[in-house]
């Protein structure tokens, strides 16, 4: 019997989320609370956490990088915090190095040691990420939740303005990157392992965690992208949202997006780089993601004869949409068979410039200060939208939306489904917001069952 690893939620938590009682918390009021929590706590604490990384124990540099103006009485407190932070950060980095050696190294490693080092990785990584809480006494001094440094319109025009320049960013490389597979660990629903390859665009290693079901030969695959700021592979006790798919016999590949998780840049927190340099950040993000996903699709085809679906939640869904349209011009082996989208909208500009989170980020104000107006920024971001028909037929598209979603506006997502002529049977709408829709899917499996039917036809 394989014990439940600590990286997923407890049986008690999962039973609650799968029960009718979970409807009490998967309501729009919870979305409002989550938005308040992000604004008041997550973003300012994340900014302080990121500044501490590059400060390397220096109080002066920390204050500059945050940036904050604390009173002199707080300096001793900051120094103690940075000392603790450096200790926790070093433990995390050393454990990650050992984890890489155990899972990807040449020497054989026992299953027991793999399980131990994976738990150690999550112990130290969780402790490192949760260091955010220690900066609570400094939260009130943070003026900007995101360190915004957008380019000027002239800089964007120079880099992407010539005919074909922007599209060239999305062109697939002539030679695909070699994918390395790690050793595996057993989990209750099957086995888990990691994939990695070198990303030319990001000049780093792209990673994905694979959740493979037991006893299924040539399983269908879902490549599922996460939302912005989500670092699913680096916390203990997360909700196990892929368990149901594994039980259905579907292999799930969960890529780690650029500037998240192992790919976070020094001085940034997960996903911040994407916003702080927009529109350039979104262009770089989506273009690199598109090429990386082509590689995950290719690996899926090479390792199973089952169908391949792409999908995601929020920004992951927008990525999947982009891939679905661009894949029409790709070799047949790279064309996905189905699309599964959770909380999405037609135009990425609607989330970045108009959605509930955009008001917290202050991106529109930062762009204006650099010479942008809202319509000019929108015109650039809309060039990233998935115009045209997707590579898969409408009846192979499954959508999950929340009627109360104000982050990726519900009406916009619905209009896109109309444009793509997605049949009503494949559209699932819940009276929830952006954050409670994914939580509700722990209990409501109808969309997953619809996807299962498509992948097993």
Automatic annotation (TrEMBL):
This is Alpha/beta hydrolase. It comes from Oceanospirillum multiglobuliferum.
């Amino acid at each position: 019997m394989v014990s439940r690893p600590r990286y997923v939620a407890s049986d008690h938590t999962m039973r609650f989320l799968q029960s009718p009682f979970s409807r009490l918390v998967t309501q729009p009021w919870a979305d409002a609370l989550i938005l308040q929590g992000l604004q008041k706590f997550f973003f300012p604490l994340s900014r302080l956490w990121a500044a501490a990384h590059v400060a390397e124990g220096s109080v002066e540099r920390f204050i500059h990088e945050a940036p904050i103006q604390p009173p002199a009485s707080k300096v001793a407190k900051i120094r103690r915090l940075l000392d603790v932070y450096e200790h926790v950060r070093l433990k995390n980095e050393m454990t990650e190095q050992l984890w890489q050696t155990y899972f990807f190294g040449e020497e054989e490693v026992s299953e027991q040691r793999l399980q131990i080092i994976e738990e150690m990785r999550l112990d130290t990584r969780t402790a490192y990420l949760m260091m955010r809480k220690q900066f609570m006494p400094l939260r009130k001094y943070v003026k900007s939740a995101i360190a915004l440094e957008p380019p000027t319109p002239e800089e964007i025009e120079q880099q992407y303005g010539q005919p074909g320049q922007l599209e060239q960013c999305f062109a697939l490389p002539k030679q695909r990157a070699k994918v390395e597979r790690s050793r595996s660990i057993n989990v209750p629903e099957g086995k888990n392992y990691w994939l990695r390859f070198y990303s030319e665009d990001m000049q780093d290693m792209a990673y994905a965690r694979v959740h493979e079901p037991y006893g299924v030969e040539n399983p269908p695959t879902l490549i599922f992208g996460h939302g912005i700021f989500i670092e699913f592979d680096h916390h203990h006790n997360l909700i196990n949202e892929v368990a149901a798919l594994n039980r259905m016999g579907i292999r799930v590949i969960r890529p780690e997006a650029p500037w998240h998780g192992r790919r976070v840049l020094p001085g940034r927190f997960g996903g911040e780089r994407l916003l702080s340099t927009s529109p350039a950040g979104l262009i770089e993000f989506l273009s690199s993601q598109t090429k990386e996903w082509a590689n995950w699709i290719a690996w899926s085809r090479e390792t199973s004869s089952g169908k391949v679906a792409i999908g995601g939640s929020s920004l992951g869904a927008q990525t999947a949409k982009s891939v679905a349209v661009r894949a029409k011009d790709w070799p047949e082996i790279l064309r996905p068979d189905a699309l599964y989208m959770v909380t999405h909208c037609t135009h990425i500009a609607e989330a970045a410039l108009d959605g509930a989170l955009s008001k917290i980020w202050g991106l529109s104000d930062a762009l204006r200060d650099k010479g942008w107006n809202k319509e000019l920024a929108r015109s650039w971001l809309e060039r990233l939208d998935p115009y045209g028909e997707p590579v898969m037929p409408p009846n192979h598209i499954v959508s999950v939306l929340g009627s109360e979603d104000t982050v990726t506006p519900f009406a916009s997502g619905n209009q896109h489904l109309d444009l793509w002529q997605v049949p009503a049977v494949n559209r699932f709408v819940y009276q929830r917001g952006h954050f409670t829709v994914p939580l509700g899917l722990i209990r409501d499996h109808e969309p997953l069952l619809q996807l299962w039917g498509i992948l097993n036809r």
